[in-house]
Design a protein that fits this description.
fumarase, 197 residues, five-stranded mixed beta barrel, alpha/beta, 6 helices, two-stranded antiparallel ribbon
Length: 197
Amino acid sequence: MSIKKIITTPVALDAIAGLQLGDTVYLSGVIATGRDDVHRRVVHEGMQCPFDFSGGVIFHAGPIVRGDNDLVSIGPTSSIRMEEWAADFIKQTGVRIMIGKGGMGDKTAAACREHGAIHCVYPGGCAVLGALQVEKIEGVYWRELGMPECVWVLKVREFGPLIVTVDTQGNNLYTESKALYASRKQACMQSVFPSSY
């Protein structure tokens, strides 16, 4: 029987350094949301984010919130949308864990290796479950960006499951899987269409 791996925030490097691709973890503590506009402001516009991401967690998500403290749902946004800014965001903020849907590219993987960060996926379609794993909304910043784009600061308990897709060595589950499946494609196609190969 495996032990449930729970990481608490702020996240120390040694808490994630031993994680490997495909490992499942959960988070307890404080995380914050941030999508395209947050990354753009920090990286391109040089704005200081009012939330300190050092040793922290950014969840690529656009939650639905009633008022200031009634979280209805929070599901992941496709992380690849942040690829343009993610490497510099990691470097500038010291964020340790990025969470979203799908994978990240080579620039982000290199930044994870250089700065000791990881990327994880949260299962798509589980936005209501995500809201149930949030104990409290602790704050909101950059409200002028609109509900899905502003920074929501959330206290979570055993938030997950989160699957490691980029580790601190820069290994990338999506890139490696794509190469593996491509290498098997020829043999599979030949067994299906032998006269064509």
